[in-house]
Amino acid sequence: MTMSRLFAWTIVAAFMALPSADADEPTWSEQKQNHWAWKTPTRPQAPAVRDSAWIRSPIDRFVLARLEAAGLKPAERASREQLIRRATFDLIGLPPTPREIDAFVSDRAANAWEKVIDRLLASPHYGERWGRHWLDLARFAESNGYEFDEPRPNAWRYREYVIAAFNADKPYDRFIKEQLAGDELWPDDPQAVIATGFNLLGPDMTDASSQAQRRQNTLDDMTDTTGLAFLGLTVGCARCHHHKFEPISQGDYFRLQAFFTPADFRRDLPVADRIQRAAHQRTLLAYHALTRAIRTRLDAMEKPYREKAYQARLAKLSDEDRLAHETPDAKRTPAQKNRVVNTARRLVVTPKEITAAMSKEHRRLHDKILAELKKYDRHRPAALPTALALQETGKEVKTFILRRGELSNKGEEVQPSWPAILSPGRKPVTASIKSPSPGASGRRTALANWIARPDHPLTARVFVNRLWQHHFGRGIVATPSDFGVRGTAPTHRDLLDWLACEFTSPSSPERKLGDSGLKDRTLARGAGWTIKRMHRLMLLSATYQQATKAPLATLRMDPNNQLLGRMNRLRLEGEIIRDSLLAVSGRLNRKVGGPSVFPPLPADFKPGAKTWKPSIDPADHTRRSVYIFTQRNLRFPFLESFDPPDSNQSCPKRERSTTAPQALALLNSSDVLIAAKALAKRVEKEANAAGERITLAYRLTLGRTPSDAERRLAREFLRESPLSEFCRALFNVNEFVYLD
């Protein structure tokens, strides 16, 4: 047997060995059943430590206990300049101004650092920074992907919702419920309905030959993403067979999917509150009354042309497709209904076709009627805003296990339920479903309520771990969307459980945080799940305030910093680098919210550039990067170099590569050249002497004053080069794109 045949037979044998869809629920080993992540977290006692003077937060006790056990000491505290730069980028994604730095450095009050954190958390830019982290998880994009990559004009409303939710410190349990079942729980709240767009953000092949398969692809995508984003589970691996590593069966996968199957996937659902809808309806009725006679004449003139064009299009279909359209809807077979959905777009008659078929005389009369109708445009109501969203169909929809994940190969019917490993008795338990509003199945509500339970083993752990990851560079669990058996074990499990319990527990003014003596004096609310309180808790810790430098003994014993004996040095993401270029050069448009913008592409950029039309208003060209239109098949060139997320799937952690294109982008891209010239003008305007300009340029770009050696080098450089080139050089210093 040849090697190629042997390899082929090995693959076939491995595939055949996988449990079939109709197999009974598997029995998992005790090791898999007793995995730590399946157990509800309980609040551990903060450990005793020897060096209690270092403690600033209960967090520090868990960290210091591990360090002391290893015979290590934490790093020194970072300088004040480093701390305010670190926190400002961390919380709002922008560099601190020299005035903000000076205010903190000179503030000797005991709560000086606390005031900085509170100010940043109250900034409207906080939601832009942390909303971007969530958009990565939600695989946010504003086009469909695949070959045609059509734009989604209303997808930006979901981004708007996310940014506003973070700014408002929306409790995380409410945030979960809105995204999974906002239309069921709060049908009259437009923002809750917009939130359900989370489920439809994945790529969509609109020209699929089978619309039923297209729908199934979307169901699969939303099931996979729900597991990853909220539960930290790789449930998608159980779509075609029982999970090879985790205690998740194929039945678990489709029982989870059953929560979503009754939903209708709307790409243009009107989202307005009851008052807006009523006002729109009144205005529309008045407009129809005013224009009824004109529209009747217009319809009568267009009808024969529309019918003729429709019949011509219908005649081009196959006999089977044509018969499906000619059969009344109530009498169509399932196959015929699928044919109608698949071919409906081919029968759409456009106004341009109608007028093109008219005689000159009829076209003249048609234009005259349109002109009459146009006189009443001021009475026509503006269209209601629309968004990607889920909507209940009101129909009873069955869910089946799909053998090998194939839609055409249905197995047994299943009922909505969560994974058995997270159910009582480790067995599938059909969810108790109650409709929260008229016309709602209540399935997604049941799922949302289960995920958002304070005692859920995964939900709070997964989210606080994501917060920790973005603040410290590495999660307590290093695989943030995989808390399963094959995921990385937590480095500080007790700390993770303490944070999870703290996150879900109610807060109140003046409540002491553990036994450290610190009090949670601000941002308190009656309920738990408060995200900003968790930021505050982490950033006020001594662990967060450590320097990135550590003794050689620490580096040798803990080179990967798993014991947290120092702060990790982190590179900024592409969006934040671009925003920093705009901010320090004085060009940043700080407007918050609104539709996406299209900055100009570089003159030499060719691929797909025809579909990218720069925004008319030049002010939109300097908006924050989170507002740049996110097209799946055309990434903004400057950001492309800095490891942007793959918007085709949930991204829990961005890669951090170091490549030549990054260096070239910072050296030669038009974004950097323009920023360098603008920064030079700003420095010349705000400082007079050469020494003052050097200092100001350093403070704006790096957040510190230059050393004596740096001043000498800068003076030598400026003798032969213009100030703009000096500014460009500073943009290429590692400190500009790294956080200490």
Beta content: under 5%
How much helicity do the residues have?
40-55%
Count of runs of 4 or more consecutive helical residues: 30
Quote the average pLDDT. 91
- The radius of gyration over CA amounts to 30 Å
Span of the ends, CA to CA: 59 Å
Question: Mind explaining what this structure looks like?
Answer:
- The protein is mostly helical.
- It folds into four domains: 52-77 and 456-570, no CATH class; 171-271 and 390-451, no CATH class; 274-384, no CATH class; 573-739, no CATH class.
- Helices cover 47% and strands 4% of the residues.
- It has 30 helices and eight strands.
- The protein has helices spanning 3-17, 30-33, 58-69, 80-92, 98-106, 112-121, 125-137, 156-167, 172-185, 190-195, 211-231, 250-257, 274-315, 319-326, 334-343, 351-357, 360-374, 443-451, 459-472, 493-504, 531-539, 552-557, 574-584, 637-640, 660-668, 670-686, 690-702, 708-720, 723-731, 734-737, and strands at residues 263-270, 386-392, 399-402, 410-414, 511-512, 519-520, 570-571, 738-739.
- The two termini are 59 Å apart.
